[in-house]
Structures
1.
Amino acid sequence: RMQRRLNRSLNSFHDHKLLALVDMSGFDPREVTVTVKGRKVKVFAEHEEERTTVRGKEYSYRSITRETSVPPGVSEGEVTYSL
């Protein structure tokens, strides 16, 4: 199932070169930051949850950081991303 979804995503980028594909499931787009600096593309996301249960409060925290180099011949201004 995941492979089919990945193949659909890759096929949708046929006119552009795909530098990276990061699974951001479980993160709200507002929790994701993408920066391009120093020939590096950095993806950072952080998610916090608080739930009240019969035993008290439960906290959940997740974060992800991925960094990829911009290929030679590509300017930082050409890098685009979508969620």
2.
Amino acid sequence: MNEDLRIHSWPCSYYLDTSKQWVSGRLSLTPVAIKFTADKTGELLVNFHLSSISEIKKESSNLIFSSLTILEKNTKHWFSSLQPSRNVVFNILEHFWREQLLSSQGAGAEAAAFQSTKGKELTGLLTGSQKRLEDTAKVLHYQGEQFDNIMRGLNKIEGDMDVADRLLTELESPSWWPFSSKLWKAPLETKPKETATVSDSKNQEGIIIRIPVIITHRTDSNVKPGKLTVLTSGLEISDCNSQVIHRFESKDVDDIRVHTPYEISVRQRFIGKPDTSFRLLSAKMPEAIPVLEMQFSKKIQFLEDALGFVGARKSPQVDMGTSIWQAATGLLGGVVQPGSPVGGREGTDNDQVQLQKQEKISQEEAKELKQILKKLKGLALETEAELERQDEALDSITTSVDRATLNIDKQNRRIKKLT
């Protein structure tokens, strides 16, 4: 992710301690830093990492009203005249600051950038791939259940069609036909079972991912912290106390707009009354967007500021996945067989020694990578098997629908003859 990407910016005033005066400008938030740029000169007066912040507070005094203070190491920065309001800026800054500290790239992000080994880098990449594959498996499992429910519904329709066919045959047969009483038998006992099956499927809730978010409802200027839960059956927005604010079923979502990699809006349209719309901002949103894109592929829209994100994530995906696997297998080969070339390629002894020095990983890291690769292989096989099963189910559904359509047309013609 581009660390220079501007997530949000607000007009405000900054107290410049050197000249003892307030300077008007814009306070900007990036994924890893806070910046302030003066309006008149365009000079960057403030620029520090989120991990260096010790405290963010709302303060006021006899001379300074409605101010926001940020304690960075031993320096206290004062911001005032914040628009649209101090509370909005405070909630967003505090959210990204806390998430930065809680994430694996939090307080020690800068030091870890120099100290991380190639093994840790690969472990992080493969762990991310494993998480994505697990999320995909959850969605596919839910789709499989939906296919099963469709098949049960089609089987019930076929049973009803058989009953209708018997009734039509009874109506078409002459009154003197001696076997007409046998045609009235119908398997009505299956109805309670079907009802129980449908109710059981409705009670199933599959949570794919849950992230903390900053919530804005419609066009309100007030924001509040909460949570976004992506379910197999829809979306759920709740407050900090896990009280549900709104729940979108999958069919209720009309569009999802990705404004930036960190901000989306979800909308349900209505005729004759205002739309239900929520704008969601989160430091964890890049993890949720691929899941949303997978579930709402026809309803999600990437706006101009997010096109770079989706392009960078989509275009080299195959090559990136291939390079991860090749790098992992090559490095593991280098650890298990130090004498062989990395990745199985031929090279000189000097090149081998240099590569091993640059990309050497520990035995513990190699063991962890092997375990992750084993899990990835199992998940990939399960996903492939589920996709094949769903493909067969889709063919069966198509065949059943075609057969039901023919039967309906046939029975319509029979009914016309009777009337």
